[in-house]
Design goal:
- The strands form 2 sheets. The protein has an 8-stranded mixed sheet with strand order 1-8-2-7-6-3-5-4, sandwiched between helices. A 7-stranded parallel sheet has the order 11-12-10-13-14-9-15, with helices on both faces.
- It has 2 domains: 224 residues, P-loop containing nucleotide triphosphate hydrolases (Rossmann fold, 3-Layer(aba) Sandwich); 156 residues, Rossmann fold (3-Layer(aba) Sandwich), CATH 3.40.50.300.
- By secondary structure, it is of the alpha/beta class.
- The protein is 37% helix and 13% strand.
- The structure holds adenosine monophosphate.
- Adenosine monophosphate binds next to helix 3.
């Protein structure tokens, strides 16, 4: 993998491209250079080139950077060398890395395993949602590096199962995310339990005042490195927005999944309940999908991820918390089923595609209520997102026999789409409700059988391609009518 893998970030610090910095120039040990070589990295990324020498010189550090910039290796690599000398002691980890989510913690642990292959370092992962037994055992035996989410760490600390007084090095990763998740008081508490004489590194995509205060309080004379975000400047990602009514979102998504040459996709929603429901709906429509969100236990989440990585499923419906920072290769599409509430999340979400030099497409669904949120995204990324239009469609479109112009078209040569639409919207408004009222109260509500029948009729567009369609359709071509969302108040 070349440097293009981290192409989302452009440097604010002095460029290195002019004099091509090498890993060997950064002061890392031979063993580490071998591990870096084995990872296939040829050049350090800007944040690595700046951070590694500073960490090796035991300086405190503030890295303003997000995932995708190579920031993990920028602290993991020098930490391995810093930790190489010294003795492990029971219950007293020698260094601590705090991560906001279990997935990120697990990912950092993977990095340690990869880069630390030639070192004798013990690492433990302390995350919620998994059995504590092995974690406690590892702590009892002594660890050099402890990677933890704040909740589980506090839990063990309060039970006296861990002592932080031997911890000489602390990394606070994704500090702004920690803030969003309400972890700052925990982090302050933890910092206060660590020895004063220690090295501290803090990474954050943004520097809101609370994080700045935290840094002022717990870091001493830190070196500050900034690599700018602007994932939108990643030329490998083609981003679109689609103005869509809430009740048409699923139909629109299914159409795109069926017709935009999707290989693998992550579909983000703002709510866990939507993630669950959407995954069910997609599965019912015949898509191979899975889900990850904060309510799913760690083992299941990891299994879902594995299924996605192995190709067992090719669509992952996700919430932000579970998906933050995930490094999954080869994701062809990202769908923002909901416009994210925080513009930073947009950057993180679409950054799941277009990685490692590959091309990716990102679609953001925008309802009327999202006007402000999408405006904030465009302000943050300093660019207007193109509206998805007919020219951007990757399949051939017939001129549609105009589905929606009249309020109640009685006849339609495509085959009763109106009925389908009505039933669908009703289902959408009450996603998981059982028909619990007595039948006579609900004359209009279709009994279960009819709903099923509807379903068989309903996902006409993607189904048409996926199921037995008598007409020969060349792969990747849609010869059905133009989908409604392409005609609704967008680019002509
Ligand atoms: P991160 O920003 O830590 O999430 O890293 C993003 C991706 O960049 C990961 O897949 C890393 O394996 C990869 N990466 C890290 N450092 C380098 C490098 N020097 N050259 C190429 N890829 C890298």
């Amino acid at each position: 993998m070349g440097l293009c893998a981290i192409g989302q970030a452009t440097m604010v610090t002095p460029p290195f491209t002019g004099y091509s910095m090498k890993f060997a120039d950064l002061g890392l040990s031979e063993d580490l250079l071998k591990a870096v070589d084995a990872a296939g990295y040829t050049e350090p990324t800007p944040i690595q080139a700046e951070a590694i020498p500073a960490v090796l010189m035991m300086k405190d550090l503030i890295g303003i950077a997000q995932t995708g910039t190579g920031k993990t290796a920028s602290f993991v690599l020098p930490m391995i060398d810093v930790m190489a000398a010294g003795r492990r002691r029971a219950l007293m980890p020698r260094s601590l890395i705090l991560e906001p989510t279990r997935e990120l913690a697990a990912q950092v642990a993977e990095n340690f395993e990869k880069y630390g292959a030639n070192h004798d370092l013990k690492m433990a992962l302390l995350i919620g949602g998994v059995q504590m037994g092995d974690q406690l055992k590892a702590l009892n035996e002594g660890v050099d590096v402890l990677i933890a989410t704040p909740g589980r760490l506090m839990d063990l600390f309060e039970r006296g199962k861990i002592l932080l007084s031997g911890c000489e090095l602390l990394v606070i990763d994704e500090a702004d995310r920690m803030l969003d998740m309400g972890f700052i008081p925990d982090i302050e508490f933890i910092c206060e339990k660590l020895p004063e004489n220690r090295q501290t590194m803090l990474f954050s995509a943004t520097m809101p005042p609370v994080i700045k205060k935290l840094a002022d309080k717990f870091l001493s004379n830190p070196k500050q490195i900034e690599v700018s975000r602007a994932a939108s400047t990643n030329d490998n990602i083609t981003a679109f927005k689609i103005n869509v009514e809430q009740r048409k979102k699923r139909e629109t998504l299914e159409w795109l999944l069926g017709n935009d040459h999707v290989e693998t996709a992550i579909v983000f929603s703002n709510k866990k309940t939507t993630v669950r429901q959407l995954n069910k709906d997609l599965q019912r429509s015949g898509f191979k999908s899975g889900e990850i969100h904060g309510d799913i236990d760690q083992n299941t989440r990891q299994k879902e991820l594995e299924r996605f990585k192995s190709g067992d499923i090719n669509i992952l419906v996700a919430s932000d918390v579970a998906a933050r920072g995930l490094d999954i290769k080869g994701v062809s599409h990202v769908f923002n089923y909901d416009t994210p509430w925080h513009p930073d999340d947009y950057v993180h979400r679409i950054g799941r595609t277009g990685r490692a030099g590959a091309k990716g497409r990102a679609f953001t669904f925008v309802t009327k209520a999202d006007a402000e949120a999408i405006g904030n995204v465009e302000k943050l990324t300093k660019s207007k997102i193109d509206v998805f239009g007919k020219d951007d469609v990757r399949v051939e479109l017939k001129d549609a026999p105009k589905p929606p112009p009249k309020p109640k078209p009685k006849k339609d040569d495509v085959g009763a789409p109106k009925k389908v639409r009505e039933d669908k919207s009703e289902r959408d408004q009450k996603p998981a409700k059982e028909p619990k009222a007595p039948e006579q109260d609900k004359p209009k509500r279709a009994p279960k059988k009819d709903v099923k029948q509807d379903r068989a009729d309903k996902p006409k567009q993607p189904r048409k391609r996926r199921d037995e369609d008598s007409e020969p359709v060349p792969p990747g071509e849609w010869n059905g009518p133009q989908p409604g969302f392409l005609g609704v108040g967008f680019k002509k």
